[in-house]
Design a protein that fits this description.
The complex is a heterodimer of chains A (116) and B (110). Chain A is mainly β and 116 residues long. Chain A is built from no helices and eleven strands. In chain A, strands 2, 4, 5, 6, 9, 10 and 11 form a seven-stranded mixed β-sheet that branches. The chains are: A mainly beta (116), B mainly beta (110).
Chain lengths: 116, 110
């Protein structure tokens, strides 16, 4: 079974609709991240969470919100979707409990979101 | 602001033709440099982390090296299954977040 799972894998929605993307992990990591990927722009950080009570904005948080329901679950919401939020969305996790010697992030399979 | 630039954007090689991908970075206090492989429609797959200039790591046909300004991903005698986009990222001691380059799309022709 995959260590980091994302649901749904594909979603088509209409402008103005509320959308939630979910991420679950079995790696036991404390840190979780949400990124979007657009052609030619690379991966950009939307939000990140270092533990259940710690939520931080990334470089492109406008139009998005998140919820860390448990150590293993981190959800991304688009309150009112717009076409320029069409992208690939990735969840990632990392473990800082082992002395902070690595920032290695492990990614989920992604969600392809299309906003019409 | 941290910057990561990868070159070339795309590279086509014949099977068995060795080459290198470049990742240039400007980071205030490099904590780590990361290489990932990404197949179309899939999430990035972790390959290597390098921490200090002079460090090298190898995995099968791939070898990553690091200097104070750039990293190279050397691919030796590549096979078609090595075709993918290779991403480079850095983290610094200030914010512990990753800054990604836009990737090099590698195609190996049989």
């Amino acid at each position: 079974d995959a260590d980091v799972t994302q649901t749904p894998r594909n979603r088509i929605t209409k402008t103005g609709k509320r959308i939630m993307l979910e991420c679950s992990q079995t790696k036991g990591h404390d840190r979780m991240y949400w990124y979007r990927q657009d052609p030619g722009l690379g991966l950009r950080l939307i939000y990140y969470s270092f533990d259940v009570k710690d939520i931080n904005k990334g470089e492109i948080s406008d139009g998005y919100s998140v919820s860390r329901q448990a150590q293993a679950k981190f959800s991304l919401s688009l309150e009112s979707a717009i076409p320029n939020q069409t992208a690939l969305y990735f969840c990632a996790t990392s473990d800082q409990t082992s002395g902070g010697s690595t920032d290695t992030q492990y990614f989920g399979p992604g969600t392809r979101l299309t906003v019409l | 602001e941290d910057q990561v630039t990868q070159s070339p954007e795309a590279l086509r090689l014949q099977e068995g033709e060795s080459s290198s991908l470049n990742c240039s970075y400007t980071v205030s206090g490099l904590r780590g440099l990361f290489w990932y492989r990404q197949d179309p429609g899939k999430g990035p797959e972790f390959l290597f982390t390098l921490y200090s200039a002079g460090e090298e790591k190898e995995k099968e046909r791939l070898k990553a090296t690091l200097t104070k300004k750039e990293s190279f991903l050397h691919i030796t005698a590549p096979k078609p299954e090595d075709s993918a986009t290779y991403l480079c990222a850095t983290s610094n001691f200030g914010n512990e977040k990753l800054t990604f380059g836009t990737g090099t799309r590698l195609t190996i022709i049989p």
